[in-house]
Design brief:
The structure holds two protein chains of two kinds. Chain A is an alpha/beta fold. Chain A has nine helices and ten strands. In chain A, 38% of the residues lie in helices and 25% in strands. The radius of gyration of chain A is 18 Å and the shape is globular. The N terminus of chain B is likely disordered. Classes of the chains: A alpha/beta, B alpha/beta.
Chain lengths: 250, 478
């Protein structure tokens, strides 16, 4: 589904990713771990075409398409969804209105008519109930004044309505207490099936107790230095990243 | 040619003071002098007293100089090269004769077909029973004693009110453009709401068919008598192209004791092309007086058109406890220049004013907010709140803010907030990551930025305004 090959990426002329390779098949959950500042978030942003990052070389293919040819919106409409660590606030834009526009953009791409306001409100109600989200929060302006937990829940809601195929989850555990983390993880799990894949970016092993990865990768020095299964995460939890670094250096 | 016919021709041409008059259009020769005023006054079948006022205004204007303090840049206007009167041209027979680009815009704005014809100056089918719509409303208004007619009719039929209030808020010698308008104004709206009457509907030029072909020098006068209420909506959201470059309108509002006037404008004259070629120069003087105690005047404007906008809807808060409000959205895209804002003049005790201004600059647009809050010595306990926010899209757009505050009473309370922001890459990225195109994302952010002001418009007007923001900003990014 996703093939990243020899990817070299810079921001402000500083190389962040250098020769990164990654392959994700349908239905797989991949976790990317690594110490602070090694470019974990960069990977998610570059896959979704954030304008600050420059791809110097290498390729990203997704469902057989050359992703680097597509802009942000086109990639989104291909089913790539980035759940933000800190979603930005947009004053004056009603949350539900925004969601409806985004939903309709997807429908337009599929050649479907716009959804009526009434049907859309029904859809939102269903989704909020099944995700256990308090609906009143979403009548407010987009992310404005939302607590950390509310912002993450809002990301979940968008995800469940837009139904992407590739979930890029960028440290969605940051700033959440255990209960909030559990509920967000439950939300993600409820959306997964054999056609949907996850790239999960996290510092901590605890996230992986709730969203179970098929593969765990350690990112350092701009590339993946080690891949394995959940046991790799447990090893890191026990001995830290420095241990791996030493090993890979030797 | 028979002898009689040629005599007839000679007489006629002299009678018309040498003006060429043909059937399709009825246009005065270029230039401005007393003869032109005679011509206009005669065309309007005006009483002598009005003509005398026009003469007086012309005398004043000839001694005045065009102001140059605004942050605007345009080549000098040759006032003698303009025709000051042009009667509506022959109606077009069908929409096929209308510029397809205009039709496209109507389409985007979702204006119904029959209304499109009306706006484009196409003769309206009998199917669209505009006449009966008009008559129904007219009867309802008449029964309440409300006068709603063209200023020309009012000059003929309501002399007492017109003589008392015309030039009472914007004096004849107020400023260069207002004085010019005083001499040559051709039409406009007159509204009088009698004591204690609450006007039961939004008054709008939409219902007054003859306003569609109104010339470039409009004069509007609205009087709300004691305890009355009226909401007036000016303009349509159609981009009317006009061969005349200069628009200099004057609007005067008078609110007597306990009266309230809401005045909403959507201005969407032709803005010129991307390189600043063509477009309307819009020099407008709008002012209201809260004459009586507890009166209120509220201006709401959405300015998206014109190559140049020079406009400062103002309130003179004369009555005690009177309230003035100004809510504005001004968009300057392409090569548009807007210098706009408001003046709030506090005279009465405990007077209160609010200014909310949202300026959006895109492409090579230049947007300046210019505002004055003046608290007179007598205005004990006066309060003002001003918020002016600027949003800049792209590296070549500009925004300026010129707030003036002049306080002569120590008990006044004045708050001023100002922000300037750019549409952030993170906001655009977020919205586009959810599948919105770049243009849709920008328009969503701009609409959000303008929300407070859009909320002040009457509902239908607000929907049109929203659509208009989107159309105006199309192509402003990337």
């Amino acid at each position: 589904m996703l093939h990243v090959k020899d990817l070299k990426v810079a921001i402000d002329n500083q190389v962040i990713l250098d020769g990164l390779n990654l392959e994700i098949n349908r239905g797989e959950v991949h976790a990317i771990m690594g110490p602070n500042g090694v470019g974990k978030s960069t990977l998610a942003k570059v896959i979704s075409a954030h304008p600050s990052y420059e791809v110097l070389s290498g390729s990203i293919h997704y469902k057989g398409k050359d992703l680097l040819e597509l802009d942000v919106a086109e990639r989104a409409l291909e089913g790539i969804f980035l759940a933000f660590q800190t979603p930005v606030e947009i004053p004056g834009v009603n949350n539900i209105y925004f969601l409806k526009q985004a939903y309709n953009a997807r429908r337009a791409k599929e050649g479907l008519e716009e959804i009526s306001s009434l049907d859309f409100i029904k859809l939102v109600r269903e989704k909020t109930q099944s995700l256990g989200i308090k609906a009143d929060v979403f009548k407010r302006d987009l992310n404005v004044g939302f607590s950390g937990g509310e912002k993450k829940q809002n990301e979940m809601l968008q995800m469940s309505i837009l139904e992407p195929e590739l979930f890029l989850l960028d440290e969605i555990d940051s700033g959440l207490d255990v209960d909030a983390l559990k509920s967000v993880a439950a939300g993600v799990n409820s959306l997964l099936n054999e056609n949907r894949s996850v790239l999960l970016i996290t510092h901590y092993e605890r996230m992986l107790e709730y969203i179970k990865p098929d593969f765990v990768h350690v990112l350092n020095g701009g590339k993946i230095i080690k891949s394995g299964d959940i046991s790799l995460a447990k090893e890191i939890e026990k001995s830290g990243y420095s241990m791996l670094e030493q090993r890979s250096a030797s | 040619m028979s002898q009689n016919e040629s005599i007839h021709n000679v007489v006629n041409s002299e009678y018309a003071l040498g003006f060429t008059t043909d059937i399709e259009s009825d246009t005065a020769p270029k230039g401005l002098n007393k003869n032109i005023l005679d011509y206009i006054s005669q065309k309007k079948d005006e009483p002598q007293w009005m003509l005398q006022k026009r003469y007086k205004a012309l005398d004043l204007w000839l001694k005045m100089k065009e102001p140059n303090w605004a942050h605007l840049n345009y080549p000098p206007i040759d006032y003698q090269a303009i025709s000051y009167y042009s009667a509506p041209k022959k109606k077009l027979d069908s929409l096929d004769e209308v510029d397809p680009q205009i039709l496209q815009t109507y389409e985007k704005l979702g204006i119904p077909l029959e209304e499109q014809k009306l706006l484009a100056g196409v003769a309206v089918d009998a199917v669209f029973d505009s006449v009966s719509v008009k008559t129904t409303f007219e009867k309802q208004l008449n029964d309440l004693g409300i006068i709603f007619c063209s200023i020309s009719e009012a000059i003929k039929n309501h002399r007492e009110l017109v003589e008392k209030y015309l030039f009472s808020v914007v004096p004849m010698n107020d400023n260069f453009f207002a004085t010019l308008n005083s001499a040559v104004f051709t039409d406009g709206t007159f509204v009088y709401i009698p004591k204690g009457v609450r006007c039961p509907m939004e008054l709008s030029t939409y219902f007054r068919i003859n306003a569609v072909g109104t010339g470039q020098f409009e004069r509007t006068l609205i009087i709300a008598d004691e305890g009355s209420y009226v909401s007036y909506n000016e303009g349509c959201s159609a981009p009317t192209r006009d061969e005349n470059q200069l628009h200099a309108a004057v609007v005067e509002l008078i609110a007597l004791k306990d009266a309230q006037i809401n005045y909403s404008t959507i201005q969407n004259w032709y803005p010129g092309d991307d390189n600043g070629k063509g477009g309307i120069y819009n020099f407008v003087t709008k002012r209201g007086i809260c004459k009586g105690d507890n009166s209120k005047i509220s201006w709401t404007q959405v300015e998206t058109g014109s190559a140049i906008t020079w406009k400062y809807p103002s309130c003179i808060l004369s009555g005690d406890n009177s309230v003035g409000e100004f809510y504005s959205i001004a968009i300057a895209s392409k090569s548009q220049q807007a210098d706009t804002g408001s003046k709030m003049i506090h005279i009465g005790k405990n007077t209160k004013s609010t200014i909310i201004s949202k300026g959006v600059s895109a492409m090579k647009g230049l947007n300046a907010y210019r505002g004055l809050v003046k608290i007179g010595a007598s205005a004990k306990g006066a309060r003002n709140f001003t918020q002016c926010d600027s949003l800049i899209i792209g590296p070549t757009a500009l925004a300026h803010t010129y707030p003036y505050i002049d306080v002569h009473n120590g008990s006044a309370k004045i708050e001023h907030e100002a922000t300037t922001s750019k549409i952030s890459d993170e906001q655009l990225f977020f919205l586009m990551q959810r599948g919105l195109s770049e243009e849709d994302a920008v328009s969503m952010i701009v609409n959000g930025f303008c929300k407070e002001v859009l909320g002040k418009l009457p509902m239908e007007f607000a929907m049109e305004a929203r659509e208009l923001l989107n159309v105006t900003l199309e192509g402003s990014v990337g």
